[in-house]
Amino acid sequence: MLLATGWWLRLGQEGRPSVLARVTGRPDTELHDWTGWALVAVVMVGLVVGVRAAATFVLESVRFRRQDLNWLLSWPRAVLTGRFARHEGHFDPGQRIANVVLVVLLAALVVSGVGMARLHGGPVFVVMLHVHRWSTYAVTPVILGHVLVAAGVLPGYRGVWRSMHLGGRLDREVARRLWPGWLERHEDSDRLHAGGRRPVE
Q: Would residue 125 be called left, alpha or beta, if left means φ above 0 and alpha means ψ between -120 and 50 degrees?
């Protein structure tokens, strides 16, 4: 809703109600403000309630290994063939880059949006407006790319959508193709809990 109303307003359609505005009976500017404050609330609650998960997310997102370069170089072909290079992280190197970019850009959007909501003109408002606008330009293709990958439309990412939309269940072969190190750690952990021994590395 934020992207839809934001782009609608950015394209100079403020005087014409969007589909969302017509459905809700509220102006697009109001919808944009409301959903912006809702995002702020979600972020704040998430940071408080999920502080450990947030810490893990950050640590896993900024951890890069030398072999990640091979993964990134082979990624364009792997998107079509499904033959991804091996990586050891919880996230693949592409996800890690997207995570960092998304967090930075969403933080810029939230801070600049709050700034504009609290200010009414002046040089700081102008700076916030520029930050908000350019962050929107940058975050839009990243979000669209994420949706494309997560939808499993690309051949290399077939089956990924189940992990996002069916309760987190992920086919073992899909996990082996995309997150081999993560899968092996979980299989080893399952064997240990079942009374097995961890294989020698």
A: alpha
What distance in Å separates the CA atoms of residue 105 and residue 98, rounded to the nearest whole number?
Answer: 10
Spatial contact of 96 and 88, defined as CB atoms under 8 Å apart: no
Nearest residue to 160 (alpha-carbon basis) of 54, 73, 79, 61? 79
Place of tokens 């959903």: 35
Structure tokens at 9: 């307003």
DSSP assignment string, 36-73: HHHHHHHHHHHHHHTHHHHHHHHHHHH---TTHHHHHH
* Mean pLDDT, contiguous 10-residue spans, the chain (201 residues): 91 89 92 93 90 90 88 93 88 92 94 90 92 95 92 88 69 86 78 49 37
State how far the Cα of 60 lies from the Cα of 54, in Å rounded to an integer. Answer: 10
- Other beta carbons less than 10 A from residue 184's beta carbon: 14
Domain boundaries, the chain: 1-49, 68-193
pLDDT digits (tens, 9 = 90+) for 91-130: 899 999 999 999 999 999 999 999 998 888 899 999 999 9
N residues, the chain: 201
